[in-house]
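hey can u run this one w/ flavin-adenine dinucleotide bound, need the structure tokens asap thx
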Amino acid sequence: MSLIPLETFEEEARGFLDANARKKQAERKFVWGEGSDKVAMFEERSRSDERNDLHQACEWRAKKFDAGYGWITGPVAYGGGGLPGAYEKAWNTLEAQYQVPNQAAFTIGLGMVAPTILAHGTEPAKQAYLHNMYRADIVACQLFSEPGAGSDLASLQTKALRDGDEWVITGQKVWTTGAHYSDIGEIIARTDPDLPKHKGLTGFVVDMKAPGVEVRPLRQMTGGASFNEVFFNDVRVPDHDRLGDVNNGWAVALTTLMNERAAIGAGGGGGGVNLYARVIEMVRHFGLGDDPIVRDRLADLIIHGRVSGYNNQRAMDKIKAGQLPGPEMSIAKLAGTLNLRRLGDFVSHVLGPKLVADTGEWGTYAWAMLVLGTPGGRIAGGSDEVMRNIVGERVLGLPKEPGIDSKSPFRDLKVGTQPT
Ligand SMILES: Cc1cc2nc3c(=O)[nH]c(=O)nc-3n(C[C@H](O)[C@H](O)[C@H](O)COP(=O)(O)OP(=O)(O)OC[C@H]3O[C@@H](n4cnc5c(N)ncnc54)[C@H](O)[C@@H]3O)c2cc1C
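ok here u go:
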């Protein structure tokens, strides 16, 4: 079957967008004191605002899916368009020119869970979930972290025991973003406690509305509650919702985690506003443009911001070219979060007490939300320290970091002796 020419695809896509969305106004130059001063890392919304936003996001996704733009590169058998990456790139460029509902609620489901189901799911699972996920009929979350297993994910203790054609899941997950509005979740559970920890795990798709699933919100220091604890009390999962082979869950988890770095890299803090334009204007507004220390720190910030942007672009281009996300995703993530910390430090220096006391002054206290949100970015999707280990080992070729399971040269030492 011959492909629709790219130009025809673009023309039709433009026609669809013109008919269904409003074109964005040309971006106006940022002027201090005008418009919203919101610069949050995470959206802080009431549950009803969150529901409304999700409803609009789902409506838009369903509409574009039905028109053939919801999963352009996906296999036709599961509802995709079967087109090469260049078509998706063209669509993304066009869609970015229109005002459409924020699609962040699908980052985990479509950026991480769906590619894992495609890679490891059974045929019935692919048929049941992929079409519906890309059409936003169902939303998915990631159920990996536990109170005793985050960076060291393979230590997880949630159990899945086989019972005929079903599995029974018992345990607790934590920090589950969006569990409260998700229909399904990708869970990794321990299926054989006698095997070494990476080897006794299995992945599943779990119905978040099944009896025995209990979702409790966790409130973060910015005030919102985007995360949850999720308890599994004898939750039944059919065997056809297993991801990959029994006890091969580590490979399943790695597929999701590699896609997670890519999904996080594609986003960014600040709710889509140009943070650098804002800090430059902040410096002018407070008359600090001639202060040598402020100038020096601002230049440093902007240089690092540019470098981090290029790193991110390099990693994303590799993915768009059809290559698997590699250690450059770790560099991009680390560079991005380090720069957010630098930005927070700079703003704290310029604003001083205005950052922590709400005086009502435009463009000041609003930055507290970004400063309080950045630690989350440094932990999510692999902490800065873990990213450094990956870069050290896989990019610089340094010896492997002794893990908690590896034999440490210090292990058998007595107090007062030195390792050789
Ligand atoms: C914004 C956000 C969203 C999240 N969303 C989800 C989600 O949707 N689903 C989900 O399953 N989880 C989610 N998480 C959880 C996240 O994956 C974990 O927080 C993360 O893996 C770190 O695990 P931990 O919190 O248990 O910290 P730990 O692993 O206990 O780490 C504690 C500290 O020790 C350091 N450390 C750990 N290991 C090493 C090492 N080998 N070398 C050096 N330093 C080390 C860490 O860098 C950190 O500073 C989210 C977290 C955040 C912040």
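The mean pLDDT is 90. anyway lmk if its weird
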